[in-house]
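SECTION: protein entry
WANTED: fold as tokens:
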Amino acid sequence: MLKWNTRLTALSLLVISHYGLANPVLTKGQELVAAGDCVACHTAPGGKNFAGGLKMSTPIGAIYSTNITPDKEYGIGNYTYDDFVKAVRGGIAKDGHHLYPAMPYISFSKITDADIKVLYEYFMHSVPAVAQKNRDSDIPWPLSMRWPLAIWNQLFYDGKIYQNDPHQSPQWNRGAYLVQGLAHCGTCHTPRGIGFQEKALDQQNPAYLTGGTLEGWHAPDLTGNVKDGLGRWSTSQLVEFLKTGRTEQSAAFGSMTDVIEHSTQYLSQQDLTAIALYLKSLKPANDKAVAPKEDGSTSIALLKGDLSQRGAREYMDNCSSCHRIDGKGYAKTFPSLALNSAVLSDDPSSLISVVLKGSKMAVTQDAITGLTMPDFGWRLTNQQVADVVTFIRQSWGNNASAVTAAQVKKLRNKDSTSERKQEDNKLH
């Protein structure tokens, strides 16, 4: 299901040019900006660093990231240090309007004074100014009014700077600070409530980092869940994954690929280890979950030519050449589907989206050759996608629920590219 792609992505080149792979030793400011993944959200495809314009979908309409270069007309060139702190930690711009919480100020409120001073100096003196006008949101009035965000903040925002836990080690605290603050992992990996708020902001709440679904992708459980969380991952595997975007069995997909490319690959070994140590300390979201056990019956049936299992034919026609009959793929090349924690999630959105839209591996300093999985939405019907995803989720010892054509249709409708290719295919 994957094909070779030896070209770096445009945004990867942007980040490489910004941080400089020739000299991987980053300044303190670069380290913090990398940890915050600022370039990913504040740079549009093909645009200039931090000049904004990236489109982000929300349930009420699209918004566009803002220019955070030191340009005095369109950027933050006129921001004082206090203005900067108020925006980054509090979600309030210099002119007093509230920022949408797509800007993760909920997490950034935890940034220490020392680090936010470094960030301010970096953006004011190390980032080139770009005179690019900010784009208004596509949210219709009256939903576009910002004053209700003040009420939202009163309900869901505490504004507390991270405080070290004296009962934990310095390494654990460093990992907690990065995960909860700059890296804002909870933004994607924590479920959302009725007000689209993160249901938890740290490990004190059992919902924290138990998985969340945004824009058709499910960010998996990062607790010690042995089925679909990190319970079967070692600390060293987590470090390798955050550094390279892949392990012997797995590979990053969806927006996590961007996180690897633009953020975590640039973190120090010490910080990556601290993050992994903190994540491995989280109690499992489901302590009754059962780890999958390898089962060779599917492989035996396929070797015999038995395609009676739902989705088996679709798998053999589209997936087996890369992911193999036994579902184990090829180490650090084509990820394993057998016993893969991401495959086993209760929410199959990511697996459906990968089949519909395709995916790509992260391009990193250690792996400059990317691998791309093509999209299959143009050639497979909703029922066929549901069948092959069900096959993957229930083979080789995988023990996840079946997928319906209705679930596929819902995600396909969010992917105009897939629909357009399907129409073009019918015409030809």
